[in-house]
Amino acid sequence: MLTIIDYGVGNLLSIHNMFRRIGVPVKISGSAEDIAQADKLILPGVGHFNYGMQQLQKSGLIDVLHERVCLQKVPILGICLGVQLFTQSSEEGDTPGLGWIEGNTVAFNRNSLGKNLKIPHMGWSEIHGYEKSALFTGMPHEPRFYFVHSYHLQLKSESDALAYTDYGYKFAAGIEHDNILGVQFHPEKSHKFGMKLLENFVKYY
Predict the structure, then answer these.
(1) Which of 24, 52, 70, 113 is the most buried (most CB within 10 A)?
(2) What does DSSP assign to residue 15?
(3) Catalytic residue at 48?
(4) Nearest to 136, CA basis, from 193, 83, 74
(5) Is the pLDDT of residue 187 over 90?
(6) What confidence tens digit (pLDDT) does each residue in 3-48 have?
(7) How far is CA 109 from its chain centroid?
(8) How far apart are CA 15 and CA 17, in angstroms?
(9) Which of 48, 80, 149, 199 is catalytic?
(10) Which member of 48, 121, 149, 186 is catalytic?
């Protein structure tokens, strides 16, 4: 069973509904037992890094997530704040991240954005450099996804980058490291492109 992790952060129903539209059985749960039995996991998230990590800590799920993801290699997809929590730390707060991906979450460099680009980065952006990933198999031409964020990933190894986008400068739009995947954008708000990405996650991982 595909399980969306409920730790009090994120638009769970939107993700749930997108999976239902593509005919994939899915469960929303904050139960350690359900996570221990899941075939695939989704870690959603919207908002502040510190709050997200604190909610995960309060949920009591970090140990079972570490067991399932890092030791048993269950596929997991982080969405927006969810993928940021995979990193080691964030400039948005002083709470350490999960540390599953070598790198940090950093604020947009305002000096590099120019006067015409605002923070947060909000709206549709095209991505590139995704050809190596099965997550984008059969993707419609010129894939674009919906972003809403003020911070982005800064990876220590470019080999972990899943895809890139440009907003003043290039940054990683997602990561893929073995069974750990994540995207900075919102596939559940990205229509046919997001639908295909979620379908591929279920099919190929």
Answers:
(1) 52
(2) H
(3) no
(4) 193
(5) yes
(6) 999 999 988 999 999 999 999 999 999 999 999 999 999 999 999 9
(7) 21
(8) 5
(9) 80
(10) 186
